[in-house]
C-alpha cells in the first residue's frame, strides 16, 4: 500500500511538472490583482471577474480576454 501511494504521488508530480512546462496555458489575472493595478475597489473587480471570467481558486479572468474586454469598452472598470 505504501509503495502504491508513492507511485501515485510520483505520477502526480510528473504531471504537474509537465503542466508547468506547457507554455500554451493561459495566464490568469485575479480580482485582487485587478483591484490593485487599476485602483478600483475589490468588489467591483470581483463582479467584473464573475461576469467575464471564472472561479478558479478565486475569481479570475484570462489575461487575453481581459485585454480584449478593456479594449472594447474602457469604462467597465470605472476608467474613461
Structure commentary:
The protein contains 4 helices and 3 strands; from the N terminus they run H-E-H-H-E-E-H. The mean pLDDT is 85. The chain is mainly α. The chain has helices spanning 2-21, 31-38, 42-52, 63-72, and strands at residues 28-30, 54-55, 59-62. The protein is 61% helix and 11% strand. The longest helix is centred in the N-terminal third of the chain and has 20 residues, at 2-21. The chain has a 3-stranded antiparallel β-sheet with strand order 1-3-2.
Shape descriptor reads elongated
- Largest sheet report: 3 strands, antiparallel
Distance between the termini: 61 Å
Number of helices: 4
Output the structural class.
Answer: mainly alpha
Query: What percentage of amino acids are in beta strands?
Result: 5-15%
Brief sketch in words of this structure:
With 80 residues, the protein is mainly alpha-helical.
What structural keywords apply?
three-stranded antiparallel β-sheet, 3 strands, 61% helix
Amino acid at each position: 500500500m505504501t509503495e502504491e501511494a508513492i507511485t501515485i504521488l510520483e505520477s502526480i508530480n510528473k504531471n504537474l511538472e509537465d503542466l508547468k512546462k506547457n507554455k500554451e496555458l493561459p495566464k490568469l489575472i485575479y480580482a485582487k490583482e485587478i483591484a490593485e493595478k487599476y485602483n478600483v475597489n475589490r468588489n467591483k473587480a470581483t463582479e467584473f471577474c464573475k461576469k467575464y471570467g471564472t472561479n478558479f481558486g478565486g475569481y479570475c479572468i484570462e489575461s487575453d480576454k481581459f485585454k480584449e474586454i478593456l479594449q472594447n469598452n474602457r469604462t467597465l472598470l470605472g476608467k474613461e
